[in-house]
Amino acid sequence: MSEAVPNGRERQFLGHPIGLTVLFLTEMWEMFSFFGMRALLVYYMTKRLDIGQEYASLIYGFYAALVYFTPIFGGLIADRWLGKRRAVLIGGATMAMGHFMMASEPLFYPALVTIALGNGLFLPCLASQIEGLYREGDVRSKSAYNIYYVGVNLGAFLAPLVCGFLGEAYGWHWGFAAAGVGMLVSLVVYVAGLRHLPPEPARVAQVRGTRSPMDRTARRQLFFLMGVAAIVVVFRGAYEQVGNTIALWADVGVDRQVTAGWSIPMAWFQALDPLVVFAATPLLVARWSRLAKRGVDTPSLYKMAFGAAVVGVSYLALAAVAGWSQARGVHAHWAWLVGWFVLMTLGELYILPVGLGLFGHTAPEGWRATCIALWFFAGFFGNLLAGALGTLWSRWPHGVFFVAMGGVAGFSAALLFVVGRRVGRGQIRDNRSVAAMVSP
After folding, report:
1. What's the CA gap between 234 and 414, in Å, rounded?
2. Rg (the chain; Cα; Å)
3. CA distance between the termini of the chain
4. In terms of DSSP bridges, do strands 12-13 and 254-255 run parallel, antiparallel, or are they unpaired?
5. Cα separation of 413 and 216, whole Å?
6. Which of 306, 285, 300, 235 has the alpha carbon at shortest distance from 434?
């Protein structure tokens, strides 16, 4: 963690550098825009644009994959030439333009590409600034990524409630426009808080003449992270069904009636995942901190394996509900979907924020934005896989489909556990970052 660190007179909020609050709020509003659009996307395609479910699933998967593909190039560009701050500003402005383009039907496909391109610069360069807020050995950095992840999910919680409601009640274009406004707010927050963020570190292109940009140890770190990212691809094949087939099941397989005159809007269920993250993260962080003080510090890969297993179990439970309901020709009560979101999200908290922290701590110096981008790059192939798996929704009974998703998540859990055992047995050596990573 030797990137530039603020001086000793740094302002703090709730025991952390105020720069973390700036990054928290910036990401919160960016996620508001991203998830606001995503909550409407599959409904917009199938209900407004009259796109068939299988083709809509492929479009959804390709777009979501592109969102995670572009950061690998954005991280490289920022590490070598643009710098993190400039990349965030350019990327954010590009994303805002793309969200407003979504309000025009003829610009649908160009808008998706524009958002993905802007995201490529924005996403890795914001999260990669977290490490620079803390000095070497600062124990607060261990919980910083979980706190940051709360910001991600607070925005994701508000997005379906606002954008989803506007889209369903007043027209899809109003929901997309609200997402664009959220992106503009994100940029304003970031610019206003720049003075609280660490200064730009020397970029790889500037130091290439004085040291090797990628030595043997750094390559070992990078290969290790690539292996973990490959496993996360499998996990995301199941996890990313949240905005795709789960959203469709909320429409066609769930009884959303609450009172005689009111049903729960379809998009509102998308707010449950971030709501549980927001509520449960402080409890989990406190629990992990208490265990660490007693000398019990579960390795990150084991936490991730446990999280993937919980997600697998949640899908198997949902399969039972969907199979029972479909066999009897009735809709499942909305409470079952709420319960699934709670269980699935608890599993998510053990894998996604933990994995983000793993990549941040383990990244070689000068390659942090690139390695953070690698973490998100796993989402590229993961969403392609999720989109392809989603085409089976129209071919298989819903219960069978959910069983398959449970198997995908369970397989990723087994792989993470195996890799965790190999790391624990010293298969990856001479690497202080990896040693620290496996018990963050």
Report:
1. 11
2. 21
3. 13
4. unpaired
5. 29
6. 300
Give per-residue pLDDT as tens, 365-380.
767 767 877 887 788 8
Residues 403-430: tens digit of each pLDDT: 999 999 999 999 999 998 887 654 443 3
Domains and CATH numbers, the chain: 12-199+214-437 (1.20.1250.20)
Extract the tokens encoding 359: 């990549």
Helix H or strand E segment including 16 = strand 16-17
Q: Beta partners for 254?
A: 332
DSSP 8-state code for residue 132: G
Tokens in use for 22?
């700036």
Q: How many CB atoms lie within 10 A of CB 327?
A: 10
DSSP 396: S
State the DSSP string of 219-254. Answer: HHHHHHHHHHHHHHHHHHHHHGGGGTHHHHHHHHTE
Residue 215, by phi and psi: left (phi above 0), alpha (psi -120 to 50) or beta? beta
Q: Whose CA is closest to 303, among 143, 429, 165, 420?
A: 420
Enter the tokens of residue 340: 């699934």
> Is residue 359 a contact partner of residue 370, using CB atoms and an 8 Å limit?
no
- Cα separation, 91 vs 118, in Å, equals 4
Can you give the pTM of this predicted structure?
Answer: 0.73
Low-confidence ranges of the chain (pLDDT < 70): 1-14, 137, 139, 142, 201-214, 366, 369, 424-440
Sign of CA dihedral 191, 285, 32, 370: positive
The letter for the amino acid at 353 is: P
How far apart are alpha carbons 323 and 253 in whole angstroms? 10
Cα distance between residue 55 and residue 51, in whole Å: 7
For 8, counting Cβ atoms within 10 Å of its Cβ (0-12 exposed, 13-18 middle, 19+ buried), the class is: exposed
Tokens of 406: 């449970």
What distance lies between CA 196 and its chain's CA centroid? 25
| All residues at 6 or more sequence positions from 436 whose CB lies less than 8 Å from its CB, including other chains | 361, 362
Continuous segment of H or E residues that includes residue 211 = none
